[in-house]
């Protein structure tokens, strides 16, 4: 399974030079990011595998089912969402505001043995869970070893 990198322009740093290098190679621990240019925020994603299915969990706090779209096409799982900013009160001044608003898109290339056409998903308590069954031919089979 492979994450698909999405490039929305420079992720951090204050010079175009930083965009020439892959983040993982150039700054693997995120130590050199500029405090003045925020990093892209993607929702956190976890992927687990059992003998029968893949389970993808994505943190989407504040999102409702109508705000999230999940597509599987050509063995690529695409998760996207849109969060509206809450309306401000005129007499209110923000002291700290860390909530993220706007759109996000995450993509994962599924392995060949995943059956995306039979996937289902649900959102509960701010976690989107996508269950993708494995194809029958992908089941592990233990062979009996015989002596001659």
Descriptive notes:
The chain is 3% helix and 32% strand. The chain is an all-beta fold and 148 residues long. The chain has two domains: 1-40, no CATH class; 41-85 and 100-136, Immunoglobulin-like (Sandwich). A four-stranded antiparallel β-sheet has the order 1-6-5-4, with no helix packed on it. The relative contact order is 0.21.
Task: Offer a concise description of the structure.
The chain contains 1 helix and 8 strands, in the order βαβββββββ. It has one helix spanning 23-26, and strands at residues 2-3, 45-49, 53-59, 68-73, 76-83, 102-109, 120-124, 127-133. The radius of gyration is 20 Å and the shape is elongated.
SSE blueprint and pairings:
Elements: E1 2-3, H1 23-26, E2 45-49, E3 53-59, E4 68-73, E5 76-83, E6 102-109, E7 120-124, E8 127-133
H/E element sequence = EHEEEEEEE
Structural classification = mainly beta
The beta-strand count equals 8
Overall 3D form? elongated
- CATH hierarchy, class of the largest domain: Mainly Beta
Which key features would you list for this structure?
4-stranded antiparallel beta sheet, 148 residues, elongated, mainly beta, Immunoglobulin-like
């Amino acid at each position: 399974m492979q994450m698909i990198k999405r490039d929305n322009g420079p992720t951090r740093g204050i010079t175009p030079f930083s965009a020439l290098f892959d983040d993982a190679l150039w700054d693997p621990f995120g130590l050199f990011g500029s405090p003045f240019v925020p990093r892209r925020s993607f929702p956190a994603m976890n992927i687990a595998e059992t003998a029968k299915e893949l389970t993808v969990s994505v943190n989407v706090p504040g999102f409702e089912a109508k705000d999230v779209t999940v597509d599987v096409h050509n063995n690529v799982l695409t998760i996207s969402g849109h969060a509206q900013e809450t309306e401000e009160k005129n007499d209110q001044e923000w002291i700290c505001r860390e909530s993220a608003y706007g759109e996000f898109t995450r993509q994962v290339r599924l392995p060949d043995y995943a059956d995306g056409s039979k996937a289902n998903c649900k959102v509960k308590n701010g976690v989107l869970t996508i269950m993708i069954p494995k194809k029958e031919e992908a089941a592990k089979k233990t062979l009996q070893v015989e002596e001659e």
